[in-house]
Give the backbone structure.
Amino acid sequence: MADIIKLLPDHVANQIAAGEVVQRPASVVKELMENAIDAGASTIKLVVKEGGKTLIQVIDDGLGMSVTDARLSFERHATSKIQKAEDLFQLSTKGFRGEALASIAAIAHVEMQTRTEEDEVATHIKIEGSKIIAQEVAVAPKGTSMMVKNLFFNIPARRNFLKSNHVELRHIMDEFHRVALAHSSISFHFYNNGSELFNLPSSNSRQRIVNIFGAKTNEKLVPVKEDTQVVKISGYISKPEFAKKSRGEQFFFVNNRFIKSPYLHHAILGAFDGLIKKENHPGYFLYLTVDPGSIDINIHPTKTEIKFDDEHTLYAILRSTVKHSLGQFNVMPSLDFEQDQNLETPYNYKNRSAELPKVIVDAGFNPFKEDSLAGSAQKSGFQKPSTKDWESLYVGMESNIGKNAGFSSVSFESDTITGSIFENRKETIDTGATTFQLRRKYIVTTIKSGMVVIDQSRAHQRVLYEKFLKNITIKEAVSQQLLFPLSLTFSKSDCAIIEEIQDSLTTVGFIFDSIDVEKVKVTGVPFSVPESEVGIILDQLISDYQQDFVGDGFSQTDILAKTLAKSLSVKTGEVLDSDSQLGLVNDLFACKESGVSPFNKPIFVTISEDEIDKKFI
């Protein structure tokens, strides 16, 4: 039998490795920025065009490379970070396996200019698909400039899997945030399609968080600090009242490396237990410093997962530290049994002596004398009510005795109606059907074969969903102009999402006067949206888009309609009048799909007359 096992060529092996290292343009940004940090750069510039598909450029002022190192850096497993296997357990740098540049060069057009401080001229190398096209001398400042063009140019199938430019840019911004937050002492600049998105000067960790997520973030942060033999913890957590429905502002850094750890995330949720709703998520920026020998970084190609030696101890320390910070800064309610504030002497009365009350006694008072009684009453200001003509109080009442006139205006207590779907409903549709509300959650109505129990919230979601979907499609939404424009504050990434879906929001009825870097001014809202809920709805929209990462127009329309329907629907616990109950039932069964809600949950249950009869057998 002929030999069938052969060694793969280097360019094929590099493309296979690129599938693990380079998943999308954001992966290239991460690898290049981490290399710049390892080179000791104090200023890093990131330039991106068309979501990183056309151009990704990282410029740093680090050490630079010599001619030999520049050529050797594109070889597989060529690295300056480790020399022997034991070094894998004492890592203090970012990249160490030497696969990043080789993988990137295998699937893109790469240009590198680099110069050390000792060299007079720089080295300029051009590579296309792992093949070195040119190497020449150039003039460049100290440091390295890496330019990656036409990502996945030789693998069309991989390029087709990339999302829209907005979605890819959002992934790049996430990686940029992770690197910039871990290294606040380094200055970062981020340019997208010629415009500057971020200009982050060298600062401390708190100022770096504020510069990235907006000035309003400063009031949300609570400092966290703990120093133990196992781990050193520092950073900030957000106050419980600022918890969001999205998981955007959650960052763990171990030895200045961003990681994802569901186990440690559960410790944070345990510390916030009872302070936030179950569907909300707290924000945190936590920096953990541990012994490099107690962790294993080399368990995932992207190095975002880490294995700890003693996770249980770390879990307990982290949870107690966050709880301590919440209580220390009066965020969490605490009980103090040592002293009672109500029993302390006020400040103005500390040096005063106690004053005895004065008692005045009338020695000539005789309770058995009428004149003394009258005199004492006059002194005290008390006048005994007169009992003369008491019969006049009952004049006219004898005419009503024995009659039932008093029962004609008897009113009974009932539930206060808190929700009405159909305002100004002038006429009631008399179809002979009867409805009533059960537990302020279900609407029960009769049909020919029995009865139907309808979930009022899900039913209203379906009605609103199809209504908004229709308005977006035919672009005939009714907008309500605000008397005073509403100014809302968001982070730069959130404003980018709102700007991305602005056209879809306009078709629903939102009107934006301006969308700046961190502020959004709203001048009009859909007719059914109250002004107080505009910020909540936009937050929910941003959360849905961050979780789904959609880019095509149909998905935008679908998510927008679902979010608005969920936010504006009647909630469980609201009391509806009979007209609203009947109208909701009629509108539900007029929908194209009345069986399930927009989130694929059943809306109603039918109970036949036979099933009811069986209960009485």
